[in-house]
Structure formats: C-alpha cells, structure tokens
C-alpha cells in the first residue's frame, strides 16, 4: 500500500470525510486520516480547516501520530494562533517526559510554531531543556534558541538565553558544541556588531577538540566559526592549521572547502620561509582537485572558489592545469568556469597545451562556450606575451572557418591584441576586412570600426569601409555610433584631403540628428577641436593609448582578500563582498547582482568605454541651446576647479563624474600639463608674467578659453611642471594609487600628489616620510588629508617640501624614496623629481662673476649635450627657461648663431653655468654645462630638455 | 540555513514542498523555472540562482530537481551536499529516487525530511540513525503494522545520535558475519584525434558492505598505498593512523557505505585500456560524409575488456546514416542524433569496426563541429591503477568474519575527439 491512496479522494466532500475520520474512535483510522491530511499539505493543498480536529489527536502515546500532528501544527499554527494555544499544555507536559526523544521533539516543535503567545510559554521548558541531562535534548534546545531569536530577539536577550548558549560552547558533548556554534553564528548574523562569538585561545581549543568528534555538518559550523578568529601570532596560527589540515580529507566537500578557507586565511600569518608553509601549500592542491570530480553542482561552487584561490596563490594549482580541461558533457556553467581558470593558470610553460585545448573548444556546438573560448585565446595573447603570435594565428584560422559568431568574437579580441602589442600584427587587417559584411553584433562592429580608424593609413579603402557603415548610422547601437564617429575623425586627421565630406557628414549626424547626449557631446568636441586647432586635434584624437594588460580582469586585491575570507559562502560564488548583497542583517533586500565574470569587458579601449558621465543627464534634460553655449557650459563646469583654484582637491563624486565624462579626451587634450594648472604661474606671480597673445585675446565662450589654454601651454608662463605619473600602483598597495609630480611655486617646492582609493574600504590616517636623499628633501609639514578617502574617491594634495632634511647621495641623483602610510598598511615607492625644482629664484649671477667663475671651473668639469628637435628661437627659449629659474645673463650673436649664457643656483648652493648655442633654422641646440659638482650636469641637462620641449 | 525544499520534476511541476522555517510561497520557484526554460538541457540550469529575496540552490539528479530556498548567507556547498543526501536517502529507503516513489511514500518522505533538518540545521543525516527513527518500508512490516497497529516510527532515541561514532548503531546482530569491499576505478580521459592522451585520471572508490555483529574495529591495508596521495575518507576512518601508517583503521557503519574515494592523476600511472581509430569526415560539397570507427585493446594487463559501448552525438544536420558493424549492433535515434554502438567484449584477434555513410539534409552546409566519441567499458578483476588490498583484520569481536575484495575498472568520462 502506498501513500498515493491518500490522493484518491478528491471529490467534493473530502474535508468533511477527513473530519469524520479524524474524530473516529479507532486509533488506526485516526492515524490514516492524519496521514491523508499531511499528504494533502505536502502538495500544497489548504487543509487548515481541519485544525481543531487534528490538534485533538495530539494527546496520544503513539509517537508517529504525535509527530504527524506536530508536522501539521508547524505548518498551520500561524494561521490559527488562538487554536494553537490549545496545544501548549501538551508541549509543556511533553517537555517533562522521561523519554529524551519526546522531550527534544516537544521543544523542537514548539520553536517552530511561530506564534507570539506560544513563545511566552516556551521560555521555561526551553531553559530546562538547555540544561537537560541528555545531550540530545541540549543540542536540540540550542537550535531552539536560534528559532526563538528569529521570532522575538528581545525576549531571547531578556531571558539570558544567549549566555546559556555561550556556555554550551564548553559542553562536554561535541554535537552540542557544534549546534551551539551554529545557533550563535546564525544569531550573530543579524547582529553584525555583537560580540556573541567571543573567541579566545581557550574557546578555540574547545572548538578544535569538538571539531574532531562532531558530525560533518557540525564541522562546517565550527570551521566557519574558526575562520573568524585572528590568531595572536604565527605559532598559534600554525598550530590551528595543523589541527585543521586533516579535514581536507573529508568526504563532505563543504567540510573541505571550509577547511581550505581557514587555512588560506591563517596561512597569511605564517612566515614564508617556514618549512610548514611549503608543506601546507602542497597539501592544499589535492583536495581542491578532488572537488572537481564531484557532482557538477559541487564542481561549480568549487570552481568559483578556486578562481579566487588561484588569483591569491597561483602557486597552489600551477601544475594542475589539466584537471581544468573541459569535458564535452560538462554542464555549460562548469565549462565556462573552467575556461576562466585555465586562463588564470596559463603561463609560458603550459601555453601550448592551453591553446590547443582552446582551439578544440572553439569548434564545439555550444555557442556561448565557443564564444568564451575564442575570447580566452585573446586573453592568453594578452597575458602570455610569448604566445601572442601563436594566438593570433589561431584566431586567424578560426576566422577562416567563417562561422559567424566565431569571426565576430575573434575580431573583438584581436582589437585588444592590437592594443596590447601595437605595430606588430597589423598585417592581419586585410583578413579582418574581408569579414566586414558578416558582422552583425554591435561589439564586433565597434571593434572592427576601431581597427579601421586606428589603422586608417594602412587600409587603402578605409574611407569606403567607414562610409558603408555610415549609411545606417541611426540604426546602429550607441557603441557603434560612438566608435564610428571617432574612427572617421581619426581617418580625417590621417587623410584630410579625401575625407572632408565624410567627416562633415558624420559630425552632423552625431550632433544634429542624434538624441544621444554622449554621442552629441563627443561630436561637438571633435567639431570644435577640428575647427579651432587641427594640430591639437591630432594630439588629442591620435594620442598614444595606454597598453592594456591582463590585470584588467583580475579581482581588485583588497576585494580579493575579503573574498578569500569568505571562501565557501555565497559571496565567493558571486565574487562580491557580502555587504554588497546582504544589507545589515539576514533576509533583507538583496540587490540584483549579475555574477562577476571575467569576460573581456575590462579591456575596452578608453574611447569606447567612457560614455556615461555625471554631467550627461544635465545636458539631456535641458533644452539644447546653441552648440557653443552648451559646450561652454559643460566645459566650464568641469574645468572650473582646475583652471581657477589650482590645487583644490576635487573630492565630490559629482566632480569626479564630470572628469570622467571628458576623461580621455580632455586629459590628452591638455597634454597632461594642465594637471599642474598653467594658470598657476600667474596666480603665484613667481614666473615672469609674459602672457602669450593668444591667452589674453578675447575668447568666444568657454570652449575657446579652454583650447587656448591648451595651446598656451607651450608658451613661457611658469615653471615647468612635469606631467603626473603613477608612482604607486593600486595593485601593489592594496588599492591605494598614488600619482603625482613636483612643482616649484613662489619659491616653495611642492610635491603634488593624487591619491585614489581603488579599494572597497575607506582609507584614513595618511602620513608620509622620505628616505634620506641627495638634496635633503623632506616634507615641511604633515600630509593634509583631512577627510577619509572613500572607495573610488580621489584627492589631490600638495605637500610643501623643505631642503633641510638629512642628505645621502642617491643613484640616480634625483631619486627619492617615499613611504606612505594609511590605516591599511605602509607602502613604499620611489620617484624622480626634476632637478629644476631645486633651482632657486636668486640664481642670477653678475656678469663679471659669471665670467670669472666660468674660467675658474676646470674644463674637465665641462660637459656638452645636444638638444634635438627644438623649434623655439633663442628669445622664446630664454623666456621659457627663466620660468624655471634658469637665468640668461648675456646673449651674443656670432655668425648667425645665438650664444646664451646662463646661470643656475641649486638649493644647496651649487652653481651651474651654461652656454646654449642656438642657430636659426637648426632645431638642434648645443649646450655646455660647467659646474664644480659635475655629477649634477646630467640632471640639469634633462631639465633643459624637459623645459624646452614642453 | 536551509529554509525550504521543493521537489520539481523535469517538466517543471512542483510535487513536494517542505518548509523548515516560515512558509515560503512556491511562487519563488518561478525564478528557477525561468532559468530552466533558458537552459538547453536540464543539466545546464545554474545551481545557484539569485532572486530579490532568496537564493535558490538546486541540484539535478535522477531527472528530478531538488531546489532549496535560502535566506541567509549559507555555504552553498553545505546546501548542495545536503540535497544530495536527501536524494541518497530516498534511494536508500525506497530503492529508487523518482517522482512516483516519492508520491507513493509522501508521508514517509515528509517525516524523513523533518528528521533530517531542524530549523535548517542538519539533524540526522546518517542512514543508520534515520532508519532507527523511521523504519524503511518492507512488505512484511506493512503487513505486521496493519495487523498490530504498531507504527514504523521508532520511539527510543537512536543510539548513534550522540556517541562519538554516530554512524554505527549499537546491538547489531548477524548470523553470518561478512565484510565485502569493492574497489571501483573509473577512468576519466580525453584522447585527441591521433590517440594521444590529452588528459587522464582515475577516480577510485572503495565501497564497503559490512554486516558484522557488535562493535568490530577493522584495519584494511594495501599492498601499494603510495599510489594514494589524494584521498577522502568516510568520517569513520582514523586519519592519524592513515597519516602515520598508511592503513585504514575504522569502526564501520552497518551496511553499505563508501569507505574512501581517491584520485590518481599522475599521467604515467593512468593506463588507457583501449584505443580508438576513427574518422568522421564530410564531403566539401556538403551532401554527406563517411564514418569509420575501430576499437581495439591497449593496456589491459591481460584482462578482457567488456561492455564496450561507443556513443556519438552526430551533427544536427544529419538526415540519415547507413552503417555496418562487424561486431555488436548499433542504434541511432534520428531525433536526438545519438548513435550508440554496443560492442560487448573486445576480441583482440578480430577488432570490431563500424563504418558506412552519413547523409546530410538537403542544402545543409558541411557541419562545423567535430562530434566527440564517448566510450564506455568495463574490466572485471582489475583496478587499473594497480591498487591492491593486502589484508583485512578485525579487532574487538571474537567471531571469524567472511571477507572478500572485488576489483572493477570502468570508463568514467572517457572521450575521444575527432
């Protein structure tokens, strides 16, 4: 007889019939009736009308009947709270039953009846059960505390159950310990800041003992709890690791992964030269590999976690590449994850194998998988330089298959390869162009257009190709439109004569016929740029692009560290910190998350990427004014803090957005020099205020202003400030990126720093220190970062420097070693400052003194240099140099050759004398330097070159 | 912890729901069903799905989806392991895991689920503990129950629940005391067109069937334990003894259980027992092609390879096939394009061959993908890694048990690329 008979009476009087049976005198009939009720309940039928009749069956000696009634109660008590009270007496009585099974069952069921009135009656029985002599009852009661806490947290605290629960961690029975830990962990989750699991060496020891003896599930709870502990020192850390390691051989994969988490975390504390450290690394690989032979669902979770582990410690699995090879009957979600890890593990040693596999995958049936495999080939090319050539030829082979989606993916990744290895593989462009017609996906079209634009000079019919795209301009996606606009402008700049019509066409399409603010803005900027200053336009549009690297699809290190602490949890599956999807406590709204995948998104070229920005909505909502005004507004808005107030740090998110909008364009537009604010020299009045005509000329709107400033950069207007360079990469400094430059303003040397927080957490407590250096540079004050730096925020700081610090000769002479500290760690970097920062204002020598000194310095100390490709006349050069405190004392003209005599005084009192020969029409200058300390000559020459060429 | 469980059949009907905390409306399954719609095969449904208020973690097993609903941060592996336990429990109790069986034993399944979790925390998942609480159905018992009115729910506390050996119950008695061990090895391998091994590993498992009275303490030792460096054990195995002496020392659970799984992936240790010569080619013109497959024995250690089956997923554009097999028979399903060639025993003197022509649908282009061959095979009395059991000793009990070891090698995911 099977239970399906319970479903056969589906006619109208079913409930009525059941009611009669429930009230029958015969025990057996009663039980059958309750079974029928439960059966209906399990398939989702509403049988709540039978509540009183079922509850009447509760008082029975038959355990099965009792259990069945309890099952029913748990489901329906909430809908019938008043009736549920009827059951309380039986519960309280059962909690006194001599049979521990019944006591446990009663306390367990009571906790599941989520009715407030019942919870009041629950407290006393629960208190007794927590101290019951039978561990089975105690362990059940421990879980009951968690249930009660879920219903009424206040009650649990008031009744002191939390303390009792904490006491149970020291229980003699490991199962009770495990359940207490589980219950406390669950309660702690809704009180993130509470100190419920107060871990200390004693309690850790108890947990470790219980770990060996409790059930597999208990082991998971205990291991997860251990992972929250921070050992005092490396010895404690090692001893915990030693006791956790046997768990790696457990048959339950969740135990294994939780153990891996504990080990990965505590390993951080072990010194790397310790023998045990190496042993531990070796022990981690086999269990991870074993997880991959489990059921596919387990594999998936394991793979997501392995993805984190190989990023953190690639050495663990570097020899295990083959286990990640895809089997054709793996589920798709396993295949995609395996591919990701294959790329992470790819290295010069195994790249041949990996490529052969990837090529194999590219001929599989599953389209998503094939696409990702093709992309993976591109990522290999970018990651392993030696393989680039082979990757490209593999991609070309794939393009020859003419399978539409394969071709499209291949083109997208080839674009990235071009960006990584410029001027190396352009010979394949012809093959790519053949496939132009088959491209129907926006990403592939955009990539192809980018290639055509970027290499327009090598493609004879580039104009025809781009023109063919232009026909359906308005039907294209934004991505393609933006790319087409940029590509045609590039083409125009490269081949101006034949493509004038084309560029006008695309500009008018973008600015007049489009509703898309990003497209319009970019159109306007190009238009203005082209009509105002084609040379500048060339510099902007055809600027050299930064190389892309494999790092773009790695997880940011601080996030990675957080995720390593969450191995085995949902966070590790989503590769997002728990804070990103669990707000405060449990069960609250979870934000919708796409799973982070390492597809090639990160490798977009910047001019494809920066579409949306903070100011865009503003432009979109206002009625479009005439083009000049709109652009003026936009640019004024964004540039205001830069051009007028100088080093005011743009800290608000809004301004950052604005900068992003103009991102690549403006940065390169201003050649980086504006980072140091050309207006600065004016503001401080230190430099001779010889304003170029173009700057003071009346200008028609913000845009003109801006461009003229850009043009004016080359004029003598202030001390030369080198463009900011990145000194400290975020990758190496747990998310803190530092770039900066040096400037000399009003006689004060300033170190201008831009601090960017690329980590997920807030940074505070910044401080800076210099190592001893050649000229005794030292911070003249503390680093002024007053507000904490939030994630993705940037702050600019000027640090005044003095030259009275301790001196030590460095190599190169102008090298400076810096330590920056924040709340996370101390980071070190070194940078080189232009020696011109040390040129003092009173460096103009008297003519007589100059002559005497020149003669006095032995000719051995004289060094000669060539400055090539400098197109300034002697006057302009002299003006420019003076801005950097290089003073011209006399000028002589001999046979059409201007001889300039100059003097420089360094902050430490060293004089440098110079003779500069400028011949009209010859872009090559000759410079002779004389100094008593000849080692500075090289640096001084570099300054000359930098100043004159910028 | 685990909030609710839904059992869903392959066509998307929910036929059982169980809640361990407050009731979650079954409409939450819509997110899952949506994902299921999107997936090409039921196997391809992602195991972790995110909905606005819950996480859905599911497994697909025996053509059923076991879907659990999670509200808090819970280790997903914990949930997945548990779901597999549920499936194994159903299999264990009712002989198979299917929709019919669950529907036939609805109440018992429900009672079992209630015993397995409490408030989402695992309570009793060991089969022998469960069986003491709720006795599995047997024909005899149901007859007795109907006659005497007793139930199949135990009313004493299971002994294993609290001891430090929760996997064994006390008071086990057998008239015939016996202990059997099966060493089963599966070869997972990928061979490329030329027959070179791209990847190969052995998944081994030692399955035990122990029916011994009392509290026996067993020690199992191997001739060559060095082979095993990557092992996972049943909780009963004393890890310290293994570490120090490389022997398996344990008090066994009663009945069937997996004693240990292991993994050999050192390439040189994995012998490939068969070779496959194959060519599947299509004419450039696109009208058809040829198929020619020969299978022969390779490293078989002198044993016979049997149960050989070759499975090929032919391209979708195939219209019909016309093949001849020199041994065994083949079946071809034109709907799924699945070609299955059942060869049987391999005879080294006369190698089985399957050849013939494939015709494509009119106008279909030459297929792009290369179909892979899947090989199934069996070798009796051989563990292909060379693992051998040395001896089994019993302590703690006086009787002499009957002991036995069996070896078998099978193909796991054994794939030949073309």
From TrEMBL, chain A:
It is found in: Endomembrane system. InterPro entries: AP_beta (IPR026739), AP_complex_bsu_1_2_4 (IPR016342), ARM-like (IPR011989), ARM-type_fold (IPR016024), Armadillo (IPR000225), B-adaptin_app_sub_C (IPR015151), Clathrin/coatomer_adapt-like_N (IPR002553), Clathrin_a/b/g-adaptin_app_Ig (IPR008152). Residues 839-949 form the Beta-adaptin appendage C-terminal subdomain domain. The keyword Protein transport applies. GO terms for biological process: intracellular protein transport; vesicle-mediated transport. Keywords: Acetylation, Membrane, Protein transport, Transport. Residues 720-830 form the Clathrin adaptor alpha/beta/gamma-adaptin appendage Ig-like subdomain domain. It is a peripheral membrane protein. Pfam families: Adaptin_N, Alpha_adaptinC2, B2-adapt-app_C. Gene3D superfamilies: 2.60.40.1150, Leucine-rich Repeat Variant (1.25.10.10), TATA-Binding Protein (3.30.310.10). Belongs to the adaptor complexes large subunit family. This is AP complex subunit beta.
Automatic annotation (TrEMBL), chain B:
It comes from the Eukaryota. Keywords: Cytoplasmic vesicle, Golgi apparatus, Membrane, Protein transport, Transport. It is found in: Cytoplasmic vesicle membrane; Golgi apparatus. InterPro entries: Adaptor_comp_med_subunit, AP2_Mu_C_sf, AP_mu_sigma_su, Clathrin_mu, Clathrin_mu_CS, Longin-like_dom_sf, MHD. The keyword Transport applies. It holds the Pfam family Adap_comp_sub. The keyword Membrane applies. CDD domains: AP3_Mu_N. Residues 176-417 form the MHD domain. Belongs to the adaptor complexes medium subunit family. This is AP-3 complex subunit mu-1 isoform X1. It comes from Salvelinus namaycush. The gene is LOC120046436.
């Amino acid at each position: 007889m099977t239970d399906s008979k319970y479903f056969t009476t589906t006619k109208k009087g079913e409930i009525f019939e059941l009611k009669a049976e429930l009230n029958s005198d015969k025990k057996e009939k009663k039980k059958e009736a309750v079974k029928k009720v439960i059966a209906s309940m399990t398939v989702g039928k509403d049988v709540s009308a039978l509540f009183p009749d079922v509850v009447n069956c509760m008082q029975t000696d038959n355990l099965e009947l009792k259990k069945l009634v309890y099952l029913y109660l748990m489901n329906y008590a909430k809908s019938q709270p008043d009736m549920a009270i009827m059951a309380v007496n039986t519960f309280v009585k059962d909690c006194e039953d001599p049979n521990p099974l019944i006591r446990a069952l009663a306390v367990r069921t009571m906790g599941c009846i989520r009715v407030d009135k019942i919870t009041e009656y629950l407290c006393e029985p629960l208190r007794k059960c927590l101290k019951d002599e039978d561990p089975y009852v105690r362990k059940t009661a421990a879980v009951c505390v968690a249930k009660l806490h879920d219903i009424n947290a206040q009650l649990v605290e008031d009744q002191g159950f939390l303390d009792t629960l904490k006491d149970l961690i020291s229980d003699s029975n490991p199962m009770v310990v495990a359940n207490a830990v589980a219950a406390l962990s669950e309660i702690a989750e809704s009180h993130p800041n509470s100190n419920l699991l107060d871990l200390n060496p004693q309690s850790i020891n108890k947990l470790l003992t219980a770990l060996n003896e409790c059930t597999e599930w208990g082991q998971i709870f205990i291991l997860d709890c251990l992972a929250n502990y921070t050992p005092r020192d490396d010895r404690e850390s090692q001893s915990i690791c030693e006791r956790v390691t046997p768990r790696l051989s457990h048959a339950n994969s969740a135990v294994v992964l939780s153990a891996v988490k504990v080990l990965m975390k505590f390993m951080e504390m072990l010194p790397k030269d310790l023998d045990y450290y190496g042993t531990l690394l070796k022990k981690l690989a086999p269990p991870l590999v074993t997880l991959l032979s489990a059921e596919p669902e387990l594999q998936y979770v394991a793979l997501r976690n392995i993805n984190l582990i190989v990023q953190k410690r690639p050495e663990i699995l570097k020899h295990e590449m083959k286990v990640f090879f895809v089997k054709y009957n793996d589920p798709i979600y396993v295949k995609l994850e395996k591919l990701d890890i294959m790329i992470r593990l790819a290295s010069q040693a195994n790249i041949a194998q990996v490529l052969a596999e990837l090529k194999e995958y590219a001929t599989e049936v599953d389209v998503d998988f094939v696409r990702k495999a093709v992309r993976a080939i591109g990522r290999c090319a970018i990651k392993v330089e030696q393989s680039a050539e082979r990757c490209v030829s593999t991609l070309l082979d794939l393009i020859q298959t003419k399978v539409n989606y394969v071709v499209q993916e291949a083109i997208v990744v080839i674009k990235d390869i071009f960006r990584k290895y410029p001027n190396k593989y352009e010979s394949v462009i012809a093959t790519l162009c053949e496939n132009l017609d088959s491209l129907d996906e926006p990403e592939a079209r955009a990539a192809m257009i980018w290639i055509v634009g970027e290499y327009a000079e090598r493609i004879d019919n580039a104009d025809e190709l781009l023109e063919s795209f232009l026909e359906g301009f308005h039907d294209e996606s934004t991505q393609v439109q933006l790319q087409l606009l940029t590509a045609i402008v590039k083409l125009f700049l490269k081949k101006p004569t034949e493509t004038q019509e084309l560029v006008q066409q695309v500009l008018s399409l973008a600015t007049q016929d489009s509703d898309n603010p990003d497209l319009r803005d970019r159109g306007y900027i190009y238009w203005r740029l082209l009509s105002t200053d084609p040379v500048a336009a060339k510099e902007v549009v055809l600027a050299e692009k930064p190389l892309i690297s494999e790092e773009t699809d790695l997880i940011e290190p601080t996030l990675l560290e957080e995720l390593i602490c969450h191995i085995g949890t949902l966070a590790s599956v989503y590769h997002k910190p728990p804070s990103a999807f669990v707000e405060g406590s449990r069960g609250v709204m979870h934000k919708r998350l796409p799973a982070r995948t390492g597809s090639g998104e990160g490798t977009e070229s910047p001019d494809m990427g920066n579409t949306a920005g903070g100011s865009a909505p503003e432009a979109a909502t206002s009625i479009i004014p005439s083009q000049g005004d709109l652009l003026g507004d936009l640019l004024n808005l964004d540039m205001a803090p830069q051009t007028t107030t100088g080093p005011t740090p743009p800290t608000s998110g809004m301004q950052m957005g604005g900068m992003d909008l103009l991102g690549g364009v403006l940065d390169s537009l201003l050649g980086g020099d504006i980072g140091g604010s050309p207006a600065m020299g004016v503001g401080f009045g230190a430099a001779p205020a010889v304003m170029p005509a173009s700057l003071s000329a009346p200008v028609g709107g913000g845009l003109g202003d801006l461009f003229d400033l850009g043009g004016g950069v080359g004029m003598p207007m202030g001390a030369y400030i080198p463009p900011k360079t990145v000194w400290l990469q975020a990758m190496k400094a747990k998310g803190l990126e530092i770039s900066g430059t040096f400037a000399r303003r009003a006689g004060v040397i300033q170190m201008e720093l831009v601090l960017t927080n690329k980590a997920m957490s807030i940074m505070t407590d910044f401080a800076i220190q210099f190592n001893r250096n050649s000229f005794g540079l030292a911070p003249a004050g503390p680093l002024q970062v007053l507000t904490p730096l939030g994630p993705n925020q940037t702050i600019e700081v000027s640090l005044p420097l003095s030259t009275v610090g301790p001196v030590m000769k460095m190599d190169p002479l102008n090298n400076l070693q810096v330590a920056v500290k924040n709340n996370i760690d101390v980071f070190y970097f070194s940078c080189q400052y232009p020696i011109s920062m040390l040129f003092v204002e009173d460096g103009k020598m008297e003519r007589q003194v100059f002559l005497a000194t020149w003669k006095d310095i032995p000719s051995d100390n004289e060094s000669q240099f060539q400055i090539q490709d400098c197109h300034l006349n002697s006057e302009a050069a002299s003006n420019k140099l003076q801005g950097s405190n290089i003073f011209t004392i006399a000028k002589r003209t001999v046979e059409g050759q201007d001889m300039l005599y100059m003097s420089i005084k360094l902050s430490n009192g060293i004089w440098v004398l110079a003779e500069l020969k400028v011949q009209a029409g010859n872009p090559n200058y000759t410079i002779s330097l004389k100094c008593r300390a000849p080692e500075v000559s090289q640096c001084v020459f570099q300054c000359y070159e930098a100043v004159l060429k910028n | 912890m685990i909030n609710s469980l839904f059992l869903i059949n392959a066509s998307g009907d929910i036929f059982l729901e169980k809640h361990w905390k407050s009731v979650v409306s079954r409409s939450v399954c819509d997110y899952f069903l949506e994902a299921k719609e999107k997936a090409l095969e039921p196997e391809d449904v992602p195991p972790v799905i995110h909905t606005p208020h819950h996480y859905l973690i599911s497994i697909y097993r025996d053509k059923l989806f076991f879907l659990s609903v999670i509200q808090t941060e819970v280790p997903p592996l914990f949930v997945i392991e548990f779901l597999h336990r549920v499936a194994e429990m159903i299999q264990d109790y009712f002989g198979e895991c299917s929709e019919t069986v669950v529907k036939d034993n609805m109440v018992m399944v429900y009672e079992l689920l209630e015993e397995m979790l409490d408030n989402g925390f695992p309570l009793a998942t060991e089969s022998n503990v469960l069986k003491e609480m709720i006795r599995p159905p047997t024909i005899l018992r149901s007859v007795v129950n109907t006659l005497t009115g007793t139930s199949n729910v135990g009313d004493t506390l299971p002994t294993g629940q609290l001891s430090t050996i929760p996997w064994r119950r006390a008071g086990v008695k057998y008239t015939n005391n016996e202990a059997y061990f099966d060493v089963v090895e599966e070869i997972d391998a990928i061979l490329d067109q030329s027959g070179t091994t791209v990847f190969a590993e052995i998944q081994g498992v030692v399955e035990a069937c122990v029916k011994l009275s009392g509290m026996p303490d067993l020690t199992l030792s191997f001739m060559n334990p060095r082979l095993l460096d990557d092992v996972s054990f049943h909780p009963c195995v004393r890890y310290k003894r293994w570490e120090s002496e490389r022997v398996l020392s344990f008090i066994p659970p009663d009945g069937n259980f997996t004693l240990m799984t292991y993994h050999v992936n050192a390439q040189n240790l994995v012998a490939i027992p068969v070779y496959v010569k194959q060519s599947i080619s299509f004419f450039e013109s696109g009208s058809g092609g040829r198929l020619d497959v020969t299978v022969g024995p390779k490293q078989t250690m002198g044993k016979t390879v049997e149960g050989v089956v070759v499975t090929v997923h032919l391209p979708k554009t195939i219209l019909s096939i016309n093949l001849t097999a020199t041994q065994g028979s083949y079946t071809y399903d034109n709907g799924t394009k699945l070609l299955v060639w059942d060869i049987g025993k391999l005879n080294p003197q006369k190698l089985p061959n399957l050849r013939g022509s494939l015709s494509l649908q009119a106008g279909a282009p030459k297929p792009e993908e290369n179909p892979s061959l899947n090989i199934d095979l069996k070798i009796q009395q051989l563990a292909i890694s060379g693992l051998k059991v040395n001896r089994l000793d019993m302590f703690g009990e006086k009787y002499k048990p009957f002991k036995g070891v069996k070896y078998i090698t099978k193909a796991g995911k054994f794939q030949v690329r073309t």
